[in-house]
């Protein structure tokens, strides 16, 4: 085959491959708004990117920003008091392009449920509670009340100036929270956890190798359950403490009691 014919064949093949790439509304800008009840349940799904959720004083939900490069559509619907916002991606593996960059406003009294994979999420000012689940994205929550539930695998969790029943779980991410909550559940595997929980009645915390630092005020008849494998655990309770404490550690572990004059009893051989 002559060089000229060979070049023509390569050009035709390359053109055919280019034509095989489907057209899409990649990176489409969005700016939509819908009226909703003040106490609406807002369900948000976004696989990757960044989503900023902020409460405002209006009885409406707005979505603005840029969709994922591979987004097929934005589903934004209202059914009674339930709002659904979903960035729909192809069923095939998503391994190129940028994720969504969205700013979502919701009523102050709304309840927010978010799910994603590698999405960084911030939630601010929501009074109806939040439930966030993501895999590798970081989660930041501020000035949220009623209910705080956050679960991630490798993302960091930061909760500030919030109140309400709190449940936080991560595998390798670090956790830093400041809440006022009567019931608190904290769970980490290898991430470090620093928590200020205010006045509480129930505290449950678990760790494997991540270190725990928890402070707060235990009310009368309150209960604390903390377990770990190889973590350092520091529990600081505001005085006076009217409680019966039982603390145990295995060989090689040390216990320092700075709440009372009771001596630490050794049961393992030195």
Major sheet = 9 strands, parallel, barrel
- Radius of gyration, in Å, reads 25 Å
The share of residues in extended strands comes to over 45%
Strands, count: 17
Q: Kindly report the average pLDDT value.
A: 85
Order of helices and strands: HEEEEEEEEEEEEEEEEE
So how many helices?
1
Q: Share of helix among residues?
A: under 10%
Identify the strand order in the major beta sheet: 7-8-10-12-14-15-13-11-9
Shape: globular
Low-pLDDT regions = 11-26
Through-space gap between termini: 86 Å
* Class computed from helices, strands and strand pairing: mainly beta
Brief summary:
The protein is mostly beta strands and 270 residues long. It is 6% helix and 51% strand. Strands 7-8-10-12-14-15-13-11-9 form a nine-stranded parallel barrel.
How is this structure best described in words?
- The chain is mainly beta.
- Helices cover 6% and strands 51% of the residues.
- It is built from one helix and 17 strands.
- A nine-stranded parallel β-barrel has the order 7-8-10-12-14-15-13-11-9.
- The longest helix has 17 residues, at 3-19.
- It is globular.
């Amino acid at each position: 085959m002559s060089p000229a014919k060979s070049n023509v064949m390569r050009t035709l093949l390359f053109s055919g491959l280019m034509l095989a790439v489907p057209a899409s509304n990649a990176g489409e800008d969005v700016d939509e708004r819908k009226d909703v009840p003040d106490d609406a349940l807002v369900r948000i799904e976004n696989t990757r990117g960044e989503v900023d959720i902020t409460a405002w004083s209006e009885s409406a939900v707005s979505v603005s920003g840029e969709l994922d490069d591979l987004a097929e559509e934005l589903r934004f619907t209202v059914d009674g008091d339930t709002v659904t916002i979903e960035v729909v991606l192809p069923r095939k593996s998503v391994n190129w392009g940028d994720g969504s960059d969205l700013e979502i406003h919701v009523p102050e009294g709304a309840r927010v449920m978010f799910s994603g994979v590698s999405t960084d999420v911030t939630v601010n000012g929501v009074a109806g509670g939040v439930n966030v689940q993501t895999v590798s994205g970081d989660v930041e929550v501020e000035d949220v009340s009623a209910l705080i539930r956050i679960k991630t695998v490798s993302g960091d969790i930061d909760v500030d100036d919030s109140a309400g029943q709190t449940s936080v779980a991560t595998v390798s991410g670090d956790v830093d929270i400041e809440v006022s909550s009567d019931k608190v559940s904290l769970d980490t595997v290898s991430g470090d956890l620093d928590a200020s929980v205010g006045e509480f009645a129930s505290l449950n915390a678990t760790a494997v190798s991540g270190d725990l630092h928890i402070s707060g005020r235990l009310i009368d008849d309150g209960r604390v359950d903390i377990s770990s494998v190889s973590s350092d655990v520091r529990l600081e309770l505001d005085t006076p403490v009217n409680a019966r404490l039982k603390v145990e550690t295995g060989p090689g572990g040390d216990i320092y009691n700075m709440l009372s004059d009771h001596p630490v009893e050794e049961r393992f051989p030195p």
